[in-house]
Amino acid sequence: MRPLMLIPLLALTAAAPKAPTTPSEIVAAAPENAWATIPADELLVMDLQKGGRVVIQLAPAFAPVHVANIQALARAHWWDKASIYRVQDNYVVQWGKNESKDPLPAAVVAKPPAEYWRSTQGLWVHPLGYPDAYEPSAGFAQGWPVGIDSKDGTANLVHCYGYVGVGRDLAPDTGTGGELYAVIGHAPRHLDRNIAVVGRVISGIESMSSLPRGTEALGFYKERSQDVPIASVQLASDMPAAGRPSYQVMDTTSPAFAAYVKARANRKDDFFIRPAGGVDLCNAPVPIRPTPAD
Amino acid sequence: MRPLMLIPLLALTAAAPKAPTTPSEIVAAAPENAWATIPADELLVMDLQKGGRVVIQLAPAFAPVHVANIQALARAHWWDKASIYRVQDNYVVQWGKNESKDPLPAAVVAKPPAEYWRSTQGLWVHPLGYPDAYEPSAGFAQGWPVGIDSKDGTANLVHCYGYVGVGRDLAPDTGTGGELYAVIGHAPRHLDRNIAVVGRVISGIESMSSLPRGTEALGFYKERSQDVPIASVQLASDMPAAGRPSYQVMDTTSPAFAAYVKARANRKDDFFIRPAGGVDLCNAPVPIRPTPAD
To answer: Are the Cβ atoms of B134 and A186 closer than 8 angstroms?
Structure first.
């Protein structure tokens, strides 16, 4: 029996002479000007003590105060020796210094505003083109998936797989950015517009998603000995330039991106019998790649 | 700092005197007649050699030939000493006897029909009530989430988190049921109507979703020594009646279920600032519970 391949997320076929038709072919063929390098101070690099590096792209266009807090916390080495203390199946992994009494670094805004959505002004939106169950419409802006309410002119960053948000208590202004979570299951879109989404894991999510699930309520680890220690969290901009991680994100206003979304909605890979003719916002992840060597 | 709770999937508050308003309160308050016990021969019980039990509910109403194959394979102990050999992050866990030359049990249909959708005739549909990106409409029928195309009168079982499908090769009739996969990420709805969905994991998904990710293409494990051995797979009906697993599923035509879906779309738990006013098909999982003791 041959290995049953199911659907490759990344097609493995070598470049063929024909025009690119699958999502991965379109991404591979996208011209240089369809890519933008992510600024080094918008990359948060988390190294786990037992090995495993998680790289998070921050989203200052959507949650500027929270992102500035996270940058300040990283610069102050806030998370060095912090830990992952919650892993809830089909939901989130959460880390930080839960119940810590350490004073916050001076640059951190203790009660940031509720940056759960923003004005669409200044956003250049590529519409998804298919219905959304949560917002009047959906699309992509500045390289990110967004829910859009054109009646009130607002857009929100959404909770897709791998997206990172700021844990908070019941009051909206209780999340400084010190406790973060990443989605490891079906997109919990009901959290959209209720929490500050601050970025997305662009590399290494498997170091978190494969952790043992916590057995306490909400997936908290029962014993502190189960916590997964974090060695360090730093901004790429604070690492030596040689060898630090660097990534590029596809320009969501580019023709290549429009072709990619269309192909995600109409899969023509050999495996498919009946293309869906639609795609949901979280099933058309914005392409990211390591910055190519010069 | 108090533990940041984020959103409880199951509320922890004790039963209050007020009417149930959160999804979990509604489920807890549902009357006995809103629940149906799953027949024991529709429960597939997989025990991993290193510990961990996964219980799968089969869906004969949607893929009768494939489900009959799976029942025959279980009765023939097909998967005893089989293994999990593929774990692809945000996609699927896959198991079986990949590349095995063992002859199929006589009762197994070697080339089953493409049971990827069915007629809506005989289905009692509760509409989701919110838009779907993949099908003209979405809802629930016979206790399962379905995509619905009322133009051609068909419905398909969908790939939500934890749902189980039959691996196949490129030709549609190449999946016997011997190689199965379960979704461990954002719902890959583009697979709907392209593969036979045969059931869902109703207990123990964390034994599969927390496994190390495979490093080969498509998440296959590189070395056979990485494969995760399966001790046995059996139908609950073939286990001693005392102590075998038993579960109940909520009747998706019941008033309790309608109230539950509405509450999932309009979360009023204390945490929420702005209920979504919508929910997607895979974020309103059909409630399942262990059968209560008499």
So the answer is: no
